[in-house]
Amino acid sequence: MQDTLTKKLFDVDNIRKDFPILGTFSNGKPLVYFDNAATSQKPVSVINAIGDYYRNYNANIHRGVYSISIKASDAYESSKRKVSEFINAKSDREIIYTRGATESINLIAYSFGADNVNEGDEIIISEMEHHANIVPWQELCKRKNAVLKVIPVTDTGELELDEYIKLLSDKTKIVSVGHISNTLGTINPVKDIISIAKAKNTNICCIVDGAQAVHHTKVDVRNIGADFYVFSSHKMYGPMGTGVLYGRAELLEAMPPYQTGGDMIENVSFSQTTFNEIPMKFEAGTPNVEGAVGLNAAIDYINSVGFDAIYVQESELLQYATEKLMEINGLRVIGTSQNKASVISFVVKGLNAFDIGVLLDGSGVAVRTGQHCTEPLMDKLCIPGTVRVSFAFYNTIEEIDIFIDALKKAIGVLQ
Ligand code: PMP
Prior knowledge:
Layout: H1 2-9, H2 12-17, E1 25-26, E2 29-30, E3 32-33, H3 44-56, H4 67-86, E4 95-98, H5 101-116, E5 122-126, H6 135-144, E6 147-151, H7 161-167, E7 172-178, H8 190-200, E8 205-209, H9 221-224, E9 228-232, E10 243-247, H10 249-254, E11 265-268, E12 273-275, H11 289-305, H12 307-326, E13 331-334, E14 343-348, H13 353-362, E15 365-366, E16 368-370, H14 375-381, E17 386-390, H15 397-414
Parallel strand pairs: 3-15, 5-6, 5-7, 7-8, 8-9
Antiparallel strand pairs: 1-2, 4-10, 9-10, 11-12, 13-14, 14-17, 16-17
Bound molecules: 4'-deoxy-4'-aminopyridoxal-5'-phosphate.
4'-deoxy-4'-aminopyridoxal-5'-phosphate binds at residues 100-102, 130, 132-133, 178, 182, 209, 211-212, 232, 243, 373.
């Protein structure tokens, strides 16, 4: 049944032709790219959209009176509208472009944090957060003498919601959690997490780090109830160096600028400066137009494949790879939540993850090894690091077979 559904929704061979890099070789072997959680590969439509921008209408935006500048400005604005629809924001005024999820979180921590967090206030994150959703809050707490509280993770890699409820207090100002864990693959119940916080106090600011989510599942920021939702273009088949900060307009309007300079101003004199409206207030200087154009094309691509097909293909890959990995002696999957995206971390008894990664590379298989920017999670799980494979919809069962063979050989060499 699932096979029929997959075939109907999805022709992976055709899809793979859209991604030139998937036809290349690494160390003399066909590239098997299983590091999609670090960054995804790019379809021709994204590469061409960026090329077309530079070949035909590269110009600075919002200032030019001439045609190609107007065209570039329109492309930038239409990209914002595309993102806004993609995540069901109320308006494209709520979409701010940044360098990536990391910068988006820093923007909130500096700007929202400056006006809304005071001495003794509390910020809640979780044990499974990426460093990008830990360090900006730690630093904000240092600046403000505020307190960082951490939701624990169970042995299977799920958030302990009972403990979360206990952490909420009258002093809680911010709750910031990841939608999907980049290390464990766990899909967190972010809608519930937010509604629990809002039931305690509607003014608690709820932030979701969606860096690992927007390309796996349809995100509806209003349905989730997020005040802020952040992600990076490069993990969703778009270019590097572009990220999104979605924020509810009322919050963004009240927040001070994060950076200052050109474009984010209304009027400037030596005695006083007034600021532009949102979202421009948060986009000082020349923006990354190429990134916006590429992200627009990436969203078109995702929409053309469709989340139903993406879900079916990625679930099949996750299930097959998990089963094959579990058959290997001494191998332990880290993160066995019922609700998982196509990310699998594992350790092999007595072996170093890095050594496994290097040997896999020799077979053309690209995986990630180490702590995955989640050092506190590794400490909690008492492991130095993992090997992580993360699949995109363009990956195949045949690639998993190649990986499993190469892994067995690597384990044989290292044991
Ligand atoms: N959050 C999560 C869950 C991530 O996986 C990543 C990237 N690994 C980030 C935040 C940071 O994204 P970026 O490096 O693109 O800013």
